[in-house]
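Task: sequence design from structure.
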């Protein structure tokens, strides 16, 4: 996944390390500055401990480069879709991939070489589905990446009515976290006197805008910590029935993986 965000008037993009690794194994040319930023400074092993980490990019050329990679989905364009809408996108991608695979498998070796775009489109659909499935699993409470702790420039925000209290309550990139911070850019610490109803009102108003909270659902709220002396992190946890999500996850993902294994493994045979 990738997440575009504006911070202090400057656009940034955060890209998951796993997607960058996949990108280095494709035929698409990649900017040298990206390679240097991710891999050039130290020996990096990508495994289950860090593959979902986000890497920050703020150079305009790097931002435009990642904007052009359509198989790395833009998280903000998918996060407000319902679970049913996400499932439909996955199914549509599977259908198109199956049609491509059927056509590709019927070609001779020479024809396959001339129609490499079919193979690349198939891989694009596969990679897109992996990212869409991540968003779906986030909503199901089955997957939680570590988003950068920064205010969401496109998300909910609430300022304090009292001009003598320079505080702001904002959504973060993580849908389960909200941030309280000073608008005068000073550090926030235990000596700050924050009106209790300001946090309470912020949570209530933020939840009123959310579409992913079921009518009969419950939510747990906890004030977690102060991050980098800048943000008070407010955690929320939506309580849902998990059984239905687990079934869908297995059905959708397994079905697509079986097709990936079966279609292109004889590509190089004449």
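Answer:
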């Amino acid at each position: 996944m990738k997440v575009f965000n504006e911070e202090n008037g400057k656009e940034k993009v955060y890209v998951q390390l796993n997607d960058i690794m996949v990108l280095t194994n494709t035929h698409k040319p990649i900017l040298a500055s990206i390679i240097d930023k991710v891999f050039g400074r130290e020996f990096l092993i990508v495994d289950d401990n860090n593959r979902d980490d986000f890497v920050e990019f703020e150079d305009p050329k790097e931002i435009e480069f990642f904007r052009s990679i359509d198989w790395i989905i833009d998280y903000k364009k998918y996060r407000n879709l319902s679970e049913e809408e996400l499932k439909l996108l996955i199914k549509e991608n599977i259908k198109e991939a199956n049609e491509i695979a059927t056509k590709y498998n019927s070609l001779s070796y020479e024809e396959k070489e001339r129609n490499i775009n079919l193979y690349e489109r198939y891989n694009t659909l596969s990679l897109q589905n992996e990212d869409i499935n991540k968003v779906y699993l986030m909503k199901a409470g089955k997957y939680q990446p570590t988003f950068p702790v920064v205010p969401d420039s496109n998300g909910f925000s609430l300022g304090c009515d009292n001009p003598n209290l320079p505080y702001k309550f904002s959504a973060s990139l993580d849908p389960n976290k909200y941030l309280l911070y000073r608008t005068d850019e000073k550090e926030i610490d235990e000596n700050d006197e924050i009106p209790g109803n300001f946090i309470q009102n912020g949570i209530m108003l933020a939840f009123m805008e959310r579409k992913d909270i079921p009518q009969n659902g419950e939510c747990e709220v906890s004030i977690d910590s102060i991050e980098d002396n800048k943000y008070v992190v407010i955690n929320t946890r939506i309580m849902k029935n998990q059984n239905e999500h687990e079934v869908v996850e297995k059905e959708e993902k397994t079905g697509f993986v079986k097709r990936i294994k079966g279609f292109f493994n004889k590509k190089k045979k004449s």
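The chain has three domains: 1-72, 79-142+242-270, 157-239.
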